[in-house]
Each structure stands twice: as structure tokens, then as C-alpha cells.
Structure to design on (152 residues):
């Protein structure tokens, strides 16, 4: 195998191929569950003071766990948002839809925002499913890698 320069298209494909293979198994579920609530608020009803917290669908939790296990989640995702002037989830979806091989790191940063952010802000995982962020990010990564493989 020829040397692969860091951040060359082949390096990017090599870096994300395993992640995409792992996460693409969730695409069908995301498609079937977009615009649906994937969490419920739970509060202990037999307590004097109730604290509500979200209980997520097990598929969402599995996806998050698998995404984190790839080791590719990027905690520096915030820089993408200022650099590319991404303000809304619609901006994110548009950016994902137009991403090519050289923007796969950016697509991963958008994915990272929701995977990592959901650990702190309870609604982020649900938002990512309902708005199609998880689905579109993984699907676009898969499409770009497949296109790269086909052209080679």
C-alpha cells in the first residue's frame, strides 16, 4: 500500500471507514424515527420532591455509545461553528448535505456536538434524532466514502 499523507482524501477515508461501518447500522432506525420523541421524562412519583430526567430509547443510547467508542468524537467542534457561521440546525443539515471528502472532519464535528453535548444537555440527543442530524451526518459520510471507493 502506498504511503498515505495525513489529511489526504485516502487518509480521511481510512480514518472514518470503521466509524461509518459501525454507525450505519442505525440509519434505518433513524429514518423511521425522525420527528418522533425518543425520550420520556421520568419522575419518581412516590417521592415528596420529584426531579425529572430523560429516559432514552435504547437505540439512541447504543448509537451514542458506539459513536463514543470510535474515538473520533471531536471536543473542538465549537470552532467549526464560528469558522463556518453555522447558527441553526438547518445550517448544519445544509452543510452536511454539501460536504465532500475534505469536509468529513467537519461533518464529524457536527455529529460530535450532539453526541458529546447530549451528555450535558439532555435534549440534544432527541433533537439530533428528530431533526435528522444523526441520520444525515452518518449517511453523508457513508455516501462520500462509497463515492471515493467507486472512483478508485
Amino acid at each position: 500500500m502506498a504511503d498515505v499523507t495525513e489529511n489526504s482524501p485516502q487518509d480521511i477515508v481510512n480514518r472514518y471507514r470503521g466509524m461509518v461501518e459501525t454507525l450505519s447500522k442505525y440509519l434505518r432506525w433513524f429514518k423511521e424515527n425522525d420527528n418522533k420523541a425518543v425520550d420520556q421524562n421520568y419522575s419518581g412519583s412516590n417521592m415528596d420532591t420529584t426531579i425529572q430526567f430523560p429516559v432514552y430509547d435504547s437505540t439512541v443510547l447504543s448509537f451514542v455509545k458506539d459513536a463514543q467508542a470510535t474515538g473520533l468524537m471531536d471536543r473542538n467542534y465549537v470552532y467549526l461553528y464560528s469558522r463556518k457561521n453555522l447558527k441553526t440546525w438547518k445550517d448544519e443539515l445544509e452543510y452536511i448535505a454539501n460536504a465532500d471528502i475534505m469536509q468529513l472532519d467537519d461533518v464529524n464535528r457536527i455529529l460530535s456536538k450532539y453526541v458529546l453535548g447530549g451528555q450535558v444537555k439532555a435534549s440534544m440527543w432527541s433533537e439530533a434524532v428528530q431533526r435528522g442530524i444523526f441520520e444525515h451526518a452518518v449517511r453523508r459520510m457513508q455516501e462520500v466514502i462509497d463515492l471515493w471507493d467507486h472512483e478508485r
Observations:
- Residues 9-151 form one domain.
- The chain is about 60% helix and 5% strand.
- The beta strands are 39-42, 53-56.
- The mean pLDDT is 88.
